[in-house]
Amino acid sequence: MNAFGQSLAVAIDCPAKINLGLQVHHRRPADSYHYISSIFIPISFKDQIRVFASDRDQLRSIVDLPEPARADYALVSEHGDYQRNLLWRLLEATRAWRQAGPDQGRSACLGLEIHKNIPGGAGLGGGSSDAGRLLAWMRSYYDWPRQAVAELALQLGADVPFFLQKEPSLVYGIGELYEPVAVGPGFGILVWPGVTVNTAKAYQFLKRTLQNDPPLKSIRGLDTEALLALRESRWHQLTGLDNDFEEPVFALHPLLGRIKADLQGTGCDLAAMSGSGSSIFGLCATQHNRDVAIEAIARDYPEALVVPFEFPAG
């Protein structure tokens, strides 16, 4: 038995993502959303959602984050405002679909228990991954139409459609369009120093113009040689994949720039900020190099969350 008094249905892994390169283009006039292009890579660092049959929709969180991330997450968990929680919004959005479905022993109500490891405001897509992976499971379990699910995913958030699948991809549009990209295996180190970056404010610093042009399906630095290096895990040859957010975010939070420089000085072949921040990651040629980097960074930044990761996540 569990917290909801029902038997376990399934456990869903919800991987964080890192960005290799992130280019922010113009804004579309209809809603001022920014077009982007980036390579999203799901990694082994993850949340997990346990789904239970229940007599009513319920959400419970087990937060494994350090402070202050634990307090930040509480603001959007059952201890705070449910309306701001993506999983709760997803349950509300799909309630009618679940109730209208054929009765094949499938519960119309769900209990969710989320084990939260991915900090918010860190550029790792934690909330989007939780929603996307749960929605992907619902799509399969209830046999919902793919197009309807894709439209709902976009309503929940621009990054949510990517997490309906788990393949490294070139992501473009406002984040809802993606095409698989071949990426070799990687050993990485993730550093989150407890700094939270407001994504909306980060976009404002870039001051992109309004244009009617269609979204670009490319990212600077991703040429034929870079695609080959990406497939063969030659991370040192991918330094041309820049993140447009680094300059303004590092100006606001110099600590993040120092962490990136230190990762580069500890044996990482590539270091960069993920998303709009504030996580910094390093990619290493070997697991040994990664372990050496972890030891050095954990020593120099004792207050930071420092975790190893791999991809593919398995």
Write the layout of secondary structure elements.
Blueprint: E1 8-27, E2 34-53, E3 58-63, H1 69-74, H2 86-100, E4 110-116, H3 126-142, H4 146-156, E5 169-172, E6 177-180, E7 186-192, H5 199-206, H6 224-231, H7 246-252, H8 254-264, E8 270-273, E9 280-284, H9 287-300, E10 305-311
Parallel strand pairs: 3-4
Antiparallel strand pairs: 1-2, 2-4, 2-5, 5-6, 7-9, 7-10, 8-9
Which descriptors apply to this entry?
six-stranded mixed sheet; globular; disordered N terminus; 9 helices; 314 residues; 2 domains; Alpha-Beta Plaits; alpha+beta
Radius of gyration: 20 Å
Distance between the termini: 28 Å
Continuous helix count: 9
| Largest pleated sheet | 6 strands, mixed
The tally of beta strands, per DSSP, is: 10
Average pLDDT metric: 88
- Strand-and-helix sequence, N→C? EEEHHEHHEEEHHHHEEHE
Proportion of residues in extended strands: 25-35%
What does this structure look like?
The chain has two domains: 8-180, Ribosomal Protein S5, domain 2 (2-Layer Sandwich), CATH 3.30.230.10; 186-311, GHMP kinase, C-terminal domain (Alpha-Beta Plaits, 2-Layer Sandwich). It is of the alpha+beta class and 314 residues long. Strands 1, 2, 3, 4, 5 and 6 form a six-stranded mixed β-sheet that branches. The chain has helices spanning 69-74, 86-100, 126-142, 146-156, 199-206, 224-231, 246-252, 254-264, 287-300, and strands at 8-27, 34-53, 58-63, 110-116, 169-172, 177-180, 186-192, 270-273, 280-284, 305-311. A hairpin with a 6-residue loop joins strand 1 and strand 2. It starts with 7 loop residues before the first strand and ends with a strand. It contains nine helices and ten strands. The protein is globular. The model is unreliable at 1-6 (pLDDT under 50).
